[in-house]
């Protein structure tokens, strides 16, 4: 990498429960050790990282470095696109993980260590990865679109993230697991219509569904252990309704990545997934990359090998 590249660093100071702001001076000093020049901007509100990223890409910035968690990186990645088209093929995304959720980096083998993360930006090859295009229903009932880079899911996953947003996020993975348990005891399985590419599955009751580009979500859950970021396919994991004891007995298998053999978990690969609630009056939440954004019905479509990212 040329140190003379035009570099824009986008920092979410509120990420990791405000710890990113406290450690910014150390991050900045580490960046200055490796890069002669770079600009940096702090975000102050939701979706601002997308605005900053898009403006920088349009100005010819060659490297956009995101400092934050999965939600921040998702916003920055969305800024590489306008009307779902890549703005500048020469712009590349680099990541310095600093968030409550840093699951996406596991699929790119980016270390949590600050110095090693920056070394990855410098030394690693640029990979063109797939992104997911989600068309969904907003909470106001309008139709919207959003790109995601790691995992989109519906069902209990959205309820878990909504619970965490309501009661506050914590760094520990146990907080996600605790929210999962609390959500499970109040959650009603949803009857859904699911179409994979052109094949409709038999309608049934589902606890959750994950449309995975990356391997890990939920602070360490290996939901899609075989997923590949540049194979042009989603790994689709569908979890049918489970009783309490069965759920509690097997939920830890997701952290180990050996849950796909469970008889109530179906695994598929597809380029496009459409999901419809059978009962339209029963809301089913959707979350992508750790953020609840809307409701079913929705479609998830893979956009193959399009986003340039630094990773191993």
Taking pLDDT < 50 over at least 5 consecutive residues as the criterion, the unreliable ranges are: none
Total beta strand runs: 17
Per DSSP, the total helix count is 9
Strand proportion, as a percent range, falls in: 25-35%
Structural class: alpha+beta
Q: What do we call the CATH topology of the largest domain?
A: Tumour Suppressor Smad4
Helix content: 25-40%
What is the CA-based Rg, rounded?
19 Å
Strand arrangement in the largest pleated sheet: 9-12-10-15-17-16
Biggest β-sheet strands, sense, barrel: 6 strands, antiparallel, barrel
Assign the CATH architecture of the largest domain: Sandwich
- Taking the alpha carbons of the first and last residues, their distance comes to 15 Å
List the secondary-structure elements in sequence, H or E.
Answer: EHEHEHEEEHHEEEHHEEEEHHEEEE
User: What is the number of independent domains?
Assistant: 2
Describe this structure in words.
The chain is an alpha+beta fold and 312 residues long. It folds into two domains: 118 residues, 3-Layer(aba) Sandwich (Rossmann fold); 173 residues, Sandwich (Tumour Suppressor Smad4), CATH 2.60.200. The protein has nine helices and 17 strands. β7 and β8 form a beta hairpin. α1 crosses α5, α2 crosses α3 and α6 crosses α7. The two termini are 15 Å apart.
